[in-house]
Design a protein that fits this description.
D-Maltodextrin-Binding Protein, domain 2; 9 strands; 2 domains; single chain; disordered C terminus; 47% helix; 10 helices; alpha/beta; 250 residues
């Protein structure tokens, strides 16, 4: 079995080299631009990049492609990527399907309810407790409103949600598990001991996507690079490092 894996890995590397042979002959590859918005625990400037940006950087490094990063408001990031660039983490919706080149699914993003003292494992339980915090103008807010919830407190960002939960102005918070873990790791130890994460309410894959101007050989090279870093365990290691952050801070 191990021999089969080595043969598959060698074949992938040969394919990757072949995909770039014609491009390399023309000179150095151009730097691609990744458009992002700052999402704690997911995409952040600097060394503490967050799990999404760490994975994307690893893909481009494995593929040997230079990458620049530009942080913008979310709506502008989408428009720029659709024109000529990349975006992550990106949800694959029917409205977006034909507008973007869906390069690779990075991982499944989990959504949970954050509470204090006792875990909350359903939306119905959260509704019975009182105010539910949610990040304003996101899919999470639209989802809860579509479910008929009227007791929402729409906050400007994740940091505001932490302050609201600490101050008792909301009873629960519905959002990304990885973002919540990252944000709450910076809270004081006494408060962290009270925090509970419920079971996963829903999850879906988030993608590295690009505009349709992306050359096919670049798309293929990035897919091969993602397969390579997945096969060697690098993606799982990045995901585990973020899962460990909250518990290690306690």
């Amino acid at each position: 079995m191990f021999g089969d894996y080595l043969m598959l890995r060698q074949a992938l590397l040969i394919s990757l080299f072949a995909a770039f042979a014609s491009v390399s002959a023309l000179g150095p590859a151009r730097a691609e631009t990744l458009y992002l918005t700052e999402i704690p625990g997911e995409t952040q400037p600097g060394d503490e990049a967050g799990i999404t940006l760490e994975i994307v950087r690893a893909i481009f490094q494995e593929a040997g492609l230079p990458l620049t990063e530009e942080f913008l408001p979310w709506s502008r990031a989408i428009r720029k990527a659709e024109g000529d660039g990349f975006i992550a983490p990106f949800s694959r919706t029917p409205e977006r399907e034909d507008r973007f080149n869906w390069v690779v699914p990075l991982f499944d993003m989990q959504f949970v309810i954050v509470s204090l003292d006792d875990p909350v494992d359903s939306k119905a339980e959260a509704a019975a407790l009182g105010k539910i915090g949610v990040w304003r103008d996101t899919y999470m807010q639209s989802e809860l409103e579509g479910d008929g919830f009227e007791n929402l407190y729409a906050a400007q960002d994740g940091n505001a949600l932490v302050r609201l939960l600490e101050g008792g102005r909301i009873d629960t918070w519905y959002g990304s598990l990885s973002e919540a873990r990252y944000l709450l790791s910076n809270s004081d130890a006494e408060f962290r001991e009270r925090v509970r994460f419920g079971v996963t309410i829903r999850d879906f894959p988030v993608w590295l996507a690009a505009g349709w101007s992306l050359p096919e050989e670049t798309t293929e090279a990035l897919r091969l690079a993602f397969d390579e870093i997945t096969g060697t365990g690098q993606v799982d290691a990045i995901l585990r490092s973020r899962d460990d952050l909250f518990s290690s801070a306690e």
